[in-house]
Inverse folding.
């Protein structure tokens, strides 16, 4: 007996809508590849969330992707390792890409899912993860070696701010007027030159 309507058609359609959105975000027509990356992302995220958070995310998924989400799940082993390199290696193996490619693909999938889940859901769930995993999943870090780069940038920014503060202090001192005399133009010019020298010296440093 044939059914006038496939009862699974709506589930297939909704899963295809999500998969198409991920494929478009990756700028690829390879739906099989998009699915591998999506499935890998689902498992990586699932295994690193607390149980209630994983259940919250699964409730947002189309039925077929929800099945992929729970495929092979062992709740007793979660949350899994929070090591970034381990996470990237697992994703790369499952998606069939390199570790370097995994970095970009993970946040692309995240970005696509952001459009499909309730507003703010992923940011809320990922906020509970360790900061380095959060940065990879949300695309705010280009890779596990970026921590040194961020630290260096913060150090450099601190040095620049200190230099600027020194130059401003020198200039402000030169602009001060004594109670018993008016502004001293020579003193002001000297202060301006000294502040300029400080800024130039800092800029010239390698």
């Amino acid at each position: 007996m044939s059914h006038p309507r496939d009862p699974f058609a709506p589930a297939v359609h909704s899963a295809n809508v999500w998969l198409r959105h991920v494929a478009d975000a990756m700028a690829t027509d390879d739906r099989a590849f998009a699915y591998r990356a999506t499935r890998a992302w689902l498992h990586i995220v699932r295994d690193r969330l607390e149980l209630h958070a994983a259940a919250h995310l699964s409730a947002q998924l189309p039925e077929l992707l929800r099945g992929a989400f729970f495929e092979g799940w062992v709740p007793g082993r979660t949350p899994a390792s929070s090591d970034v390199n381990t996470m990237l290696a697992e994703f790369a193996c499952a998606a069939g890409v390199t570790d370097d490619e995994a970095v970009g693909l993970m946040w692309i999938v995240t970005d696509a899912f952001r459009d499909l889940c309730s507003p703010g859901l992923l940011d809320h769930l990922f906020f509970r993860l360790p900061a380095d995993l959060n940065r990879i999943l949300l695309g705010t870090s280009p890779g596990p070696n970026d921590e040194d780069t961020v630290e260096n940038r913060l150090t450099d920014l601190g040095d620049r701010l200190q230099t600027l503060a020194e130059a401003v202090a020198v200039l402000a001192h030169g602009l001060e007027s004594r109670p018993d005399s008016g502004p001293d133009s020579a003193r002001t010019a000297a202060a301006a030159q000294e502040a300029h020298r400080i800024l130039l010296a800092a800029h010239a440093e390698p």
The longest helix spans residues 146-175. The chain has a mean pLDDT of 80. Residues 76 and 180 are 79 Å apart (CA to CA).
